[in-house]
Design brief:
Length: about 525
Amino acid sequence: MRSRYLTGVTMFAILASVPAPMPIATAHAQAPGSQQGFCRTADPLPRLDPETRPQQQSNADYKTEGGRDSRDEAMPMAPPPPPPPPPPPPPPSPVYAPEARSDDSAEAVVVTGSSAERGADDVSAPAPPAASSSDYARTSPTIVPPHPPRPPRPQPQPQSGILTAGEHDDLLNPELYAAYVNRSGDLGQEVRALPRVDTTRVVTVKVNDRSGQPIPFADVVVTCSDGNSITMATQADGSAVFFPGLDRLSERITVAARKGGRTIADARPVLVADAHGGQTVGLTASQAATKATKLDLMLVIDTTGSMGDEINYLQAELRSIIGAITAKHRNLDIRIGFVFYRDLGDEYVTRTIAFDRDIGRVQGALAQQQANGGGDYPEAMDQALIRAVGQDWRPDAVKSLLLVADAPPHDDKFGRTWIAAEAARAKRIHITPVAASGVADKAEYAMRAMAAATQSRYLFLTDDSGVGNPHAPPAIDCYLVTRLDALVRRVIDSQISGRRIEPDDKEVIRSVGKYDAGKCILPADFKWRNQ
């Protein structure tokens, strides 16, 4: 069973400075960059102060891309100097073993040394009683040569293919997402600026050539009845999704398509439906479709202390994912960048590494990261997304932002975080969250809203791997559990190819609910719930 419905989104993006909630029309009328009337455009991306540069780096270390100095926007790719070698260990002290006393009591026998000397494998053997100072006074200590040092046991290194995860596409399950939003209604009272996602209405514009092939990266221009217009580019599948609430569409609109500065599909009138479900508007382009040849992949990673239980495994997984994507798509022009983030008061708030084609240098930058800092639950997700969305994304590339996190933004920064998500949508950037252990209601709510708004999916780690702290079950009715590295590769491959890629049966570890190609099978008596 496959639903014909997609999603619609409405939201409240109210800045922290607003003293009380306002109706959405009022909020947008007063927000910078917004205009009154129909066809609302996204607010501009908030500005941040330049990142603090590490003092050991010189100006020459900073990358320049396209003749533009990036020292205030991105960290250099050059790795830091290796740490000095550790000092040699001190020589072992002699071990003293007193002679046995003639007493038959077990307490008279004195044994010294570590559990390793008793036998490292016999860790269950009880430790002998400690000798008192009088024991040594009554005996003549004998110097016993120390045992040769035993090499430490090798510890298993984090490897790719260990972490497990599921995924959910709220665009394919609008009915269930509407029910989820209603169950989570109390969150909106805690945080004024939480986005209110309405999946009951959507207008999807599909641009195909005359043979039915999708046209990627075409500008779809929607003009409302008052003359205002909004432009959104198509993804690799030739689609651009408009939300009547978020975009403030009028009842009657016209839809056209342009590419390369010229019209490829003339405007046609559309009546926006006011019923539950979605509608699709087809445009036939006058030029032939072409395949995507470029990929910009930005990884935004929470590196606070709460991620310490999984960060090493995530590094291994992400290195494997990057290697697999570059190996599979050898003809694809791939650039990869990072934004590592913590929180205010930590060693750094954000650390940005600009897009780079040198995969070896990218892998090295990822390997250097460690989890530290944080302190409280929320983190500086707002600043991380602003940095990431503000990078030099290519207009003719598939744009994918992987957000790896286990906590939401601070309550007073939800509005700014959502503005960054809307700016990503306006730039045609997919935001694909990867929820790690610790994710609770607010974080899941925010991440799923960002994924739905940017035509992406919500990914979440599961306990099947046995790595890290327990993972809270998501508020999702059906999903498949597979290896995380394979899942992320499928999602990115889907974004490149423009078609959903499902796992092979042998990749599925377990299933939850009734799953059918990304769609949860609904009961026969299911009815839409009013928002």
